[in-house]
Amino acid sequence: MLNLCDEDFDAMELVEGALALNQAVNPDTQVSWCEAELARLLKEAELALVNERDEQQRFDAFLRLFYHQWGFEGDRNAYYDSANGFIDKVLKRRKGIPVSLGALLLYFGRKLGFPLEGVTFPTQFLIKIDWYGEQARYINPYDGEYVSEHTLHAWLIGHSGPLAKLKAEHLETTDNPTVIGRWLALLKSALLREERYTLALRCTDLALTFVPDDPYEIRDRGFIYQQLDCHQVALSDFQYFIEQCPDDPASELLKNQVSALSENSVTLH
């Protein structure tokens, strides 16, 4: 299992950190091909934009290149597909979700010299472009469209309720470790939904290298082990969660699982 500390992620471009994460979860991730494809597309972008002199017009041309000529787009048919969280698959399919498309947009945009940053808005990942002397603007990497503060406020109300207020902290630049942590959680959820338990287990094990003894990760690990018929390990993980989070509603449900697993263990041995 790859063991990366926060400093490693901060030293990388987000897409490079995501590739490292992808490989840690699935060793079959085509990292070398990705690196070559990123270099190829970057060279293509440099050539396509070489005659643009105005920086903002150059950036608009870059967005057209990314979304129209290259054809990157949000995966509207299978948003929760785990393929949308693996960079090699996003590059091949030209489909993704805000965080994976945003990581690519950040990579190419920064290499081309644009003042871009990532923002983990409560509803999704955003790209912030901060031209000198102007108010910051926000891009939805899912479709490449600019998003107004009015729209962001509406998204926030939909997420948090009618009393939600848009605050400056919602639009602060985020660091790579925070994004990678959320990316890992998204991957795990997608893999669990697809019943790809071996890969989901790698997600949980990796998460526990960053937050050891997290009862919720250990609970999830117990569920995965249960699906893999590793009942004794699942029993231990469920018992740990119940001890650490006795007031959590899930603890009552897990007590039934513990009883059933204990009975099976006695029967088998």
UniProtKB/TrEMBL annotation:
Q: Which InterPro entries match?
A: SirB1_N, TPR-like_helical_dom_sf
Q: Which Pfam families match?
A: TPR_9 (PF13371), Transglut_core2 (PF13369)
| Recorded superkingdom | Bacteria
Q: Which family does it belong to?
A: Belongs to the UPF0162 family.
Q: Where is the signal peptide?
A: none
- Please state every residue range assigned to the domain named Protein SirB1 N-terminal: 34-184
- Know the name of this protein? Regulator of sirC expression, contains transglutaminase-like and TPR domains
Name the lineage: Bacteria, Pseudomonadati, Pseudomonadota, Gammaproteobacteria, Vibrionales
